[in-house]
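Record passed on here:
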Amino acid sequence: MPLSNTLDRVDADLAAGRVPMARQRLRGLVSSFPSDLTLRRRLAEVYRLYGDAAEAGRWMYLEEDRSEDETAAFEARYRSTGRRMKALAWRGPETLAATAFAEEQLAALRTARDEETRRPVDWDDPASYEEDEDEADEAPAEPWTVGGVLAGIGCVVGVAAFVTVWIIGVVALFD
């Protein structure tokens, strides 16, 4: 289906209140036309309807007039450069970008990932910028604390009490 027909359907979906369908169509279009910044902008608009600043920021990341709050939300959700690269779903060289700003953003992100991995990464090879297990975005493990141990014991006791009451109830049903 031609791009213009799909965009007409997106407009009809939005007019009819079928926001999830419009979002799905736009995601498909961005996947098929990753360098089309207009499609990314439209997708960001749909995510704003959901109130999802991080996803709006994701799809506006390559736009100079992007919202600082949305960009910060995107960067907070996708903390590492590898995750940001994957989230942007860009393919091809940065020179395909429609604007100098977009090209600079893409190049800066790829270069930062190059430096982190200490090897060249390529937008067309997601495996080259994926995170290693030791790069997980999780917080480092904290040492055990008395409060943490007591909370864990409390959870175990609570579950045991629930199961006991449940078993007593089931047994009483069959007596």
Q: What stands out?
A: The first helix runs from residue 3 to 15. Confidence is low (pLDDT under 50) at residues 137-143.
